[in-house]
Amino acid sequence: MYAIIETGGKQFRVVEGSKIRVEKLRVDVGSELVLDKVLLVGGPKLNLGAPYVQGAVVRAEVLEHGRNEKVLIFKKRRRHDSRKLKGHRQEYTALKITAISA
User: Fold this and answer.
1) Nearest-CA neighbor of 40 among 1, 96, 94, 95?
2) Which domain holds residue 96?
3) What is the tally of structural domains in the chain?
4) Angle made by CA atoms 33, 52, 28, in degrees to the nearest 5
């Protein structure tokens, strides 16, 4: 059984036991998280939501909080001696999917 969930403005395809990184959530490490924005539940029978599946829930355990690798943004205007360098590290929350229920 698999599900497609929405969190942080992105969609993720998850199966039981998989680990995903989502945008940072304000939850404690080790706690259980209930994700109720389920767009689709697949398996023997496909259950499609409009936009969300009624009563479908994905449970996840919070593994850690961290920061991704640095992304460099470099802008240069040629022949003007103008350049700019910026860096950004996006924070994330690592989740382990424990249960999918439709």
Assistant:
1) 1
2) 2-101
3) 1
4) 10
